[in-house]
Task: structure prediction
Amino acid sequence: MLQFFPTLPAQLDGPQRVSFLLRDAVPVGVVITEPAGENGLRVLADYVVPGYRDLQPGRFFYTQYAPSLREEGFTHFCAARGISMVALAIGWLLAQEPVTSVIAGATRPAQVVTNAAAALWTPSPEDLAELDEISPPPSKIALF
Result:
């Protein structure tokens, strides 16, 4: 594989993640990634053997793993700012133009305290742009 990706290290000894792509239980490809920046993921190699280059293995991989990659991005985002996922969710909602309040359910008194404290974090314009990179907004929203 090094002939196709000459800059790929011969030995992966860092935080790289190797995912093998299977089709009908036959290995047909590999995707090698590593963390990039605070919230990113860099694809070091994305290779599929010639007989299976109909985009199905890649489409499956990126569709199947997109939610966990997004969650990983959100986890890094929160850790870098010292906030919880609840603070991220409530802060992001409150930063949206038509939203004036957030009603968060709670089943325990501790959740009420957590939710109230979460509303104290206000995302900066840079934070909002970074969140849009992690999970791009839809191109069109139907309001009816």
Remarks:
- The chain has a mean pLDDT of 80.
- The helical segments are 56-81, 85-95, 109-118, 125-134.
